Amino acid sequence: MEEKLISYQHVDICLDDFIVLKDVSFEISKAEFVYLIGKVGSGKSTLLKTMYAEVPLRLKDMEWKDAQARVFDYDLLHLKSRKMLALRRELGIVFQDFKLLTDRSIHDNLSFVLKATGWKNKDEMEARINEVLRQVGMPNKGYKMPHELSGGEQQRMVIARALLNRPALILADEPTGNLDVETSNEIVQLLHEIKDAGTTVVMTTHNLSFLETFPGRVFCCENAKLIEK
User: How far apart are the first and last CA of the chain?
Assistant: First the structure.
């Protein structure tokens, strides 16, 4: 039986009092690669943000009595702030604009995240940093400052950061939005390799060429609906 990591049933996705997506129902299992596509403003990034509780889900916005939304064992409809932090520790999040700390090296960016998520043993931290840098093809770049790296290299470091706590799920919001075609393909290839190693990846994109080159499940946001293609 497939392990379900994400399950939404009859959920309305809202920004303030505006319904972006109506009656959303889908399930995503372990080790799947899922694309969220749609025009700008169609709700794909908003939907992704609900999965890590950046955009809250509120029952009062929903007409459906059987609405539910879960990521792992977390009930997104009744999520307390303490549980929100715990949820985010179990996820890896990859942003379009990197969000690296510009005043410290890549190694220290990664070390900062490990310390913030409860790692204490220095040898274990060093081993994990080296491991994720190898995994993203950047084993000798930890000493570099973010501004010394290309856009593609910075995004690889963001993916390394997302992998630090061995998440079962990575959420990637337009991870190739600032990159050229060749570099974009390399990043999506890397995300598929991570999926092949057992991690579920959900990625928003407006680049439809990825869907043919790197196949996965495809959900489209259009006309306030989420439709699986």
Answer: 23
